[in-house]
Design goal:
heterodimer; A: mainly alpha; two-stranded antiparallel ribbon; globular; B: mainly alpha; two-stranded antiparallel sheet; 20 helices; about 75% helix; NU5C-like (chain A); NADH-quinone oxidoreductase subunit L (chain A); NADH dehydrogenase activity (chain A); membrane (chain A)
Chain lengths: ~675, ~500
């Protein structure tokens, strides 16, 4: 059947071709190869839309397309394949759309600003998009890992785009090393999955989540290396989670992300909204059937998520640069997604992944627009009053901010509310640990509201606080266009899953996203995941009441945070209030000394260990090797000495050797008895 | 198939099965006739061409027989001739391929090497007679023919080593080779007599069937078996009968070193495989005659000593001589990893395949030495400095040989060694494979020294190479191409080897 699924590889390959084109002939093309990237991502976007509609007809696709290592006699087979189900189809549309908009925006941000090295930039964007798309459609964990690593490589290349300045190369290295640290665990996890199940497929009756499910039910047995099955699955899940924590910038591996702001702003938009950071959360969603089997792993995911959400939000409160605020908001928002996944809210987390992709891309591109206007000054204290000068940017940015803060009825409200709601009811249903995570997530709503509107007010309201803010640089259609598209999406995508409306007003059938994710392959549906998770639900005085209370509380906190920001910063001449925080200010400015303690860890713990390992390598391993070779050289020269050149010596030695053999075997074989 | 059936039952009588040996012998005689008519003939092209054609013809016939299934199970099993004194089966044909192709390469290479020498016809006829002897060794089915063919292969070899009559090294090496050879032959003959005393037969199959009656004669039999082993160890240059090898290889003309270290060694293995597997089958041996253990000892000692000694050499040719002893140790795994009821055909077949690959890479390496000798460049590693820039093609070929001998992919030596070690593990002798692997790692050290000298070191300013000899170049490149092609073509080789080995058990 030559259906749309036959063209799915093209979704991945088109940006890859644009990468090759930009790299090879970008110099000779207008706009440094931008159009190749725009055409390619537009093509991918259209194909993704077609795929999306085909999936909406109830079709799915799970196919191996290339076997690159055939395992014989029960050895594992390594394959590339495609898995197109509602989750990956949705993600394809998100990624290609954002990539397309980022390409267009780059015309304004990079080309119009006269940057050099554009072919390299567009080649990087193309490869980045292709890697992420390959990751999205991967049908097994190993393939996912390979593209995951490619995503990491591309982020390194793009964050360090301005490699002649001191900051970007260092930030790129940091991003690469920190995420690589997490990926070590991921790699071990991939090997563990292969060793345990003999397959790393995500879907189907021979997939590892399914085998794990059967193993727990006692229907099949897998090699669990002497652990109880559930313990072992938790270990494997947590190993893979190492990669997720690194890529999705969760505590304690989040430190690379704020530094990554050194990269070009469109790249930040791509990294934060649709590619690298999203990859981690997407991976958990992709293999949710495996995590759902382990209550411990889920609880850890929820706690990490909740803690990261709160922790990052507090750090965002004091930042001066607009992109820094957004960076911490990204960490915080991915914390919400992890909270949702850990709290049993698969649909809620996917929902938030989607809405966040739109409003965060919007905010970054909006920030990019502001940065163009401000001649690349990112300090918010030098801005102010930009509202009148750049209305398109202001209103779209406001739309994104309302979504980020979780204000009704913008997209972020619905998804964040659902994440919190799912965590709450499952926490009430006998998992008190979720309530802890929920409390942290809820508290973070207040901080989110505060830092978001602090950013808006400082940037756009009040009086201009610098000469550039009084006379900002204009932006063109290629900046405004993407902003407009995303501004609309940030305001409206909430309608795809209006669970509170459904519950409160009793309108059935408007939880479209839930239905959508239920159309997947057997064993990958939201319904199935809900059965697998160890949670049960309980309510405060009925379902509708709980929904209402939850929504009201989170909305109230968000408005309170925004209101505080309004009081403090929506004045013509805002002043810094951070001094009122006292000692906490220093703590927050220094990001809770996370970097410092990691550097300390590297210097005082890892370095001595490495030194020890080096000693061991130099002394013991090399010693043995050198010993063997010097023994061999020594005995070799002995052998040379035996070889005297005198033939009678040879005859004697030969006879002697034969005699020894005869005597030895004679005694051994009892010939002389 | 038609040809094979015809050979078994139809127009071609059974004796034609030995035609590879006959072709070699006739070519040798023809050269002899030329020598008698014109003893100072210096028409090297004619002589070398004739002997190469003869070798290749024998190669072609042996290959044709092998493909058509002559002497194999498919066409009615081994062909016995002359009262079972000779037998033609898959294994003998497989080894004949090795001898003839090596002989052909050596003859082409000698075109330039002996061009300035006298008595050239003698040289080529001796090569062909030695090859005849080797072919007969692989066909020997009784200890008497084994001894005679072994001598037929050895005697021309002594003379060939001494071919550079005015060269003291060549003459001295030949004398040592001859003396050690005489001693070994005596040991071998004594072993035959002891085995005869214990079993009352010289035919391998008869020896096997009368093993059960050798009660009370275990000591006699055991000593006989060990002494036979000594005779073969001489031919394969295994410890402690290896002393001649470094001297003879170093002193002999380099093409002859190639011939001895590749073909002659393979012949020793061919006869050792047949004698031990056929005459002393594992299940029927009386307790106390444990030749497998003896081969295990020899294998470990030989590969270790060969590699250790090779590591300290300064002279490239001598290094190759010791490396050839080390490779004898690897090939001995073919007999050392046998067990009653184990995957014996796989082990033996792997060893045979390794010898085939070895025939290409080792011959090529020695022929490269011949090339360097032809140019008059020195013999040590330092003298090879910077050769890569002057003669890139030949040096690429030499690098191929070195890496292939060390067992690195993507060369033929990688698979043959891999399969050999793998089959040893399969047979339960993981420690043999481990010793082999450690030795291989060590061997990389001295093989890479050659490559480093050729490509990385700077040449001495005085380094001048003469002309590019056609024959030597042809042979070296041919061997390199063979070494490379044996990687993709290893599957049919190993399958053939293991199939023909199955027929022995």
């Amino acid at each position: 059947m030559a259906g749309i699924f036959d063209f799915v590889p093209a979704i991945v390959l088109l940006p890859f071709v644009s990468f090759l084109v930009a790299l090879a002939v970008g110099n000779r093309m207008p706009k440094g190869g931008a159009f190749a990237g725009i055409v390619a991502t537009a093509g991918s976007f259209l194909l993704s839309l077609a795929t999306f509609f085909t999936v909406s007809q109830g079709q799915t696709y799970n196919q191996t397309i290339y076997t690159w290592a055939q395992g014989l006699d029960g050895a594992v087979t390594l394959e590339f394949g495609l898995l197109i189900d509602p989750l990956s189809a949705l993600m394809l549309v998100i990624v290609t759309l954002i990539a397309l908009l980022v390409h267009i925006f780059s015309l304004g941000y990079m080309n119009d600003e006269g940057e050099t090295g554009l072919p390299r930039y567009y080649a990087g964007l193309g490869l980045f998009t292709a890697s992420m798309l390959g990751f999205v459609v991967a049908d097994n964990l190993l393939m996912a890992f390979m593209f995951f690593e490619l995503v990491g490589l591309c982020s390194y290349l793009l964050i360090g785009f301005w490699f002649r300045e001191p900051g970007p190369p260092s930030a790129a290295k940091k991003a690469f090393l920190v995420t690589r640290f997490g990926d070590y665990f991921f790699l071990v996890g991939v090997v563990a999955v292969f060793a345990t199940f003999g397959t790393a497929a995500f879907a189907g009756s021979e997939s590892f989540p399914h085998l794990a499910e059967q193993a727990l039910a006692g229907e099949t047995s897998v090699n669990t290396f002497g652990f109880a099955a559930e313990t072992w699955f938790t270990i494997v899940g947590l190993l893979v989670l190492g990669g997720v924590v690194g890529k999705s910038a969760q505590f304690p591996l989040h430190t690379w992300l704020p530094d990554a702001m050194e990269g070009p702003t469109p790249v930040s938009a791509l990294i934060h909204a649709a590619t690298m950071v999203a990859a981690g959360v997407y991976l958990v969603a992709r293999m949710y059937g495996f995590y759902a089997l382990s209550p411990t792993a889920l609880a850890i995911i929820a706690l990490i998520g909740g803690f990261t959400a709160l922790f990052a939000a507090t750090m965002g409160v004091v930042k001066r640069e607009i992109k820094q605020v957004l960076a911490y908001s990204t960490i915080s928002q991915y914390g919400y997604m992890m909270l949702g996944l850990g709290g049993g809210g698969y649909v809620a987390a996917t929902f938030h992944l989607m809405t966040h992709a739109f409003f965060k891309a919007l905010l970054f591109l909006g920030a990019g627009s502001v940065i163009i206007a401000m001649h690349h000054n990112e300090n918010m204290w030098d801005m102010g009053g930009l509202k009148e000068k750049m209305p398109v940017t202001y209103y779209t940015f406001l739309s994104g901010s309302l979504a980020l803060a979780g204000i009704f009825p913008f997209a972020g409200f619905w998804s964040k509310d659902e994440v919190l709601y799912e965590t709450l009811i499952h926490g009430l249903g006998g998992s008190p640990i979720l309530l802890v995570a929920y409390a942290m997530g809820l508290l973070a709503v207040f901080f989110t509201g505060f830092y978001t509107f602090r950013m808006v007010f400082l940037t756009f309201h009040g009086k201009p606080r610098s000469q550039t803010a009084r006379d900002p640089h204009g932006v063109r259609w290629n900046v405004k266009g993407p902003l407009a598209v995303l501004g609309v999406l940030a305001a409206t995508t909430g309608v795809v899953n209006m669970v509170p409306v459904e519950k409160l007003l009793g309108i059935k059938g408007i939880d479209f996203l839930h239905q959508w994710l239920d159309m997947s392959l057997d064993g990958l549906t939201a319904h199935h995941y809900a059965e697998l998770t160890p949670y049960s639900s309980a309510y405060i005085g009925g379902e509708a009441t709980t929904v209402a209370i939850g929504a009201a509380v989170s909305l109230g906190l968000a408005i309170a945070g925004a209101g505080l920001a309004y009081v403090l910063y929506n004045v013509p001449e805002p002043t810094e209030h951070t001094d009122k925080l006292g000692g906490i200010k220093t703590l927050l400015y220094n990001n809770y000394y996370q970097d410092e303690y990691q550097v300390w860890l590297a210097n005082s713990v890892v370095r001595p260990i490495s030194r020890g390992a080096d000693k061991f390598d130099q002394g013991v391993v090399d010693g043995v090797v050198n010993g063997v070779s010097s023994v061999s050289l020594f005995s070799g020269s002995r052998v040379r000495r035996i070889q005297t050149g005198v033939v009678s010596n040879y005859a004697a030695l030969l006879t002697l050797g034969l005699t020894v053999l005869l005597l030895g075997f004679g005694l051994l074989g009892g010939w002389f008895q | 198939m038609a040809g094979a059936l015809a050979l078994q039952s139809g127009p071609l009588p059974d004796w034609t099965a030995v035609s590879p040996a006959l072709i070699l012998a006739l070519t040798g005689l023809l050269l002899f006739v030329i020598d008698s008519i014109d003893s100072d003939s210096d028409n090297t092209v004619l002589l070398a061409g004739l002997s190469t054609v003869g070798s290749l013809f024998a190669f072609g016939v042996a290959g044709w027989f092998l493909v058509e299934g002559t002497g194999q199970a498919a066409t009615g099993g081994a062909i016995s001739l002359y009262g079972d004194a000779l037998v033609v089966d898959g294994m003998s044909l497989f080894f004949t391929l090795i001898f003839t192709i090596v002989a052909a390469m050596v003859c082409i290479a000698s075109l330039d090497y002996v061009a300035e020498q006298r008595h050239q016809a003698e040289f080529f006829s001796l090569v062909l007679f030695a090859a005849t002897g080797m072919t007969l060794m692989s066909m020997s089915n009784s200890l008497a023919t084994a001894f005679i063919s072994l001598e037929l292969a050895s005697l021309p070899s002594y003379a060939l080593v001494a071919y550079l009559k005015d060269n003291r090294g060549s003459v001295e090496a030949a004398l040592k080779y001859f003396l050690i050879g005489a001693l070994s032959s005596a040991v071998f003959a004594f072993g035959i007599s002891l085995v005869y005393a214990a079993t009352g037969s010289l035919l391998l199959s008869d020896i096997a069937s009368s093993l059960g009656d050798a009660d009370g004669m275990t000591g006699i039999l055991g000593m006989g078996v060990l002494m036979l082993l000594g005779g073969f160890a001489f031919k394969t240059a295994s410890v402690p009968f290896h002393f001649w090898a470094p001297e003879a290889y170093e002193g002999a003309p380099a093409p002859i070193s190639a011939f001895l270290s590749s073909a002659s060694k393979a012949a020793g293995f061919a006869i050792a495989f047949r004698v031990f597997v056929e005459a002393f089958p594992l299940g029927q041996l009386p307790a106390g005659v444990d030749w497998v253990l003896a081969f295990q000892v020899l294998a470990v000692v030989t590969m270790t000593l060969g590699n250790f000694a090779a590591a300290t050499q300064e002279n490239v040719k001598r290094m190759l001589a010791y490396s050839s002893i080390g490779h004898a140790g690897y090939a001995l795994i073919g007999l050392a990893a046998l067990t009653a009821g184990g995957p014996n055909a796989n082990v033996l077949g792997a060893s045979m395949a390794h010898l085939l690959v070895y025939g290409f890479m080792n011959t090529g390496a020695f022929l490269f030495i011949a090339l360097v000798e032809y140019w008059g460049v020195g013999t040590t590693f330092e003298d090879y400095n910077g050769l890569g820039a002057r003669a890139p093609m030949a040096c690429v070929a030499m690098s191929v040989f070195m890496f292939s001998l060390a067992g690195l992919p993507p060369f033929g030596g990688f698979f043959s060694k891999y399969v050999l070690f793998y089959s040893a593990i399969e047979a339960g002798f993981w420690w043999l494979a481990a010793v082999g692997a450690v030795n291989s790692a060590l061997s990389l050290f001295y093989y890479s020294r050659v490559v480093k000298a050729m490509w990385i070191e700077d040449a001495a300013p005085t380094l001048e190479l003469g002309s590019k000899p056609v024959g030597l170049y042809t042979a070296v490149i041919f061997a390199a191409v063979g070494t490379l092609l044996l990687l993709p073509a290893f599957q049919p080789v190993i399958e053939t080897a293991q199939t023909v080995a199955t027929a022995l058990f």
